Amino acid sequence: MDIALKQIPVAELNPGNNVMQSPRWAAVKGLLGHEVLGFELDTSDGRDTLLAIMQQGPRGRRIAYLPWAPRILPVSASAGCFLEQLSDELQHLMPENTLCLRFDLPWQSPFDGEPPDDVIRTMRMNFGTRLHAMRKAPTDIQPTVTIVLDLNQTEAELMAGMRSKTRYNIRLSQRRGVRVRTAAPDELEIWHQLYTETMQRQNIPVHPIGYFTSLFHSRVNSPSGTRFKLLLAEHNGVPLAGLILAITGTAAVYLYGASSSRRRELMPSYALQWYAIQSSKVHGCTSYDMFGIPSVPSPDHPMYGLYQFKKGFGGTVVCRRGCWDFPVLSQEYQAVGLHELTRGGYHGH
């Protein structure tokens, strides 16, 4: 495959429907203190742009993280050959202290459900490559399994595709007076209180409010037009649930959700999610990503309740390939422990 790469300003990124590769996402990460780099990619299979976010890695090195990239799915070469060739070119455009490139691939996984162990996956990815250099990363940052709703359907068709209990809970919430509205960015403190309660309830580390402020304070002059929307579900003016929605092109992504332990019998999260789906349709979106479910939906899984909630809205389960590393400093990469190469997800980086 023929590959040509050049660096470009991140404002010139062309993400299509990919929020993680948008100029707005680059601006968010820049506000959070990351160095962000943009590249234009020309191949015999198409053209793309790439956003790389420089993360702090082990031992003073950095990891070049490319979320949901590349979008191009190779036709004239295998996935492994394409990634290796791309990485071999891209490494020369990276800062000197780059330990590895980390691609969080948006491509459909060849496996349904739980994939085989990393040794087998790595052998398969490197089959037919020249350097045999790609490595399954020790962690996945963005969710690898999700549910995507087709918003080309009418609201009636979307309702018909839901589980009957989900339809019932949406209507129950509305009948009991739960109201959902689009909130202003200066109401993020209300959101953050709900979010903090949710994370503490699930024993998950809490992002400071500045992390979410950066979403709404980032501004770029770009035709991609990525937007973030803060939605709140309330009962008699009391906030009970909230979510942050990202819209890029014709794709909507449910990025963050939160709910209070109070008045759960009012089912506010159901009314909230339905409002987000309706709002996405109004904005011209054709897909709605529920953003993360367990790869194996077992009742023993700590996220099983969230899986049941999301699955109730219908949609199609989508499995992505997850994170793959190309070591730039090979000897140092091999020497560091797996725990040093691990960064937590989802979408925290």
Automatic annotation (TrEMBL):
Task: Give the protein family.
Answer: Belongs to the FemABX family.
Q: Which residues form a coiled coil?
A: none
Q: Please name the PROSITE patterns in this protein's record.
A: FEMABX
Q: Which InterPro entries match?
A: Acyl_CoA_acyltransferase, FEMABX, PG_Glycine_Bridge_Synth
Source species, please? Spirochaeta africana (strain ATCC 700263 / DSM 8902 / Z-7692)
UniProt cross-references to Gene3D superfamilies, sorted A to Z: 3.40.630.30
Q: Where is the signal peptide?
A: none
Q: Name one GO biological process term.
A: cell wall organization
> Lineage of this protein's species?
Bacteria, Pseudomonadati, Spirochaetota, Spirochaetia, Spirochaetales
The record's section on Pfam families has: FemAB
Protein name per UniProt: Putative methicillin resistance protein
Identify a single GO molecular function assigned to this protein: aminoacyltransferase activity
Tagged with keyword tRNA processing: no
Task: State the UniProt keywords alphabetically.
Answer: Acyltransferase, Cell shape, Cell wall biogenesis/degradation, Membrane, Peptidoglycan synthesis, Transferase, Transmembrane, Transmembrane helix
Does Transmembrane helix appear among the keywords? yes
Q: Which residues cross the membrane?
A: 237-257
- Superkingdom of this protein's organism: Bacteria
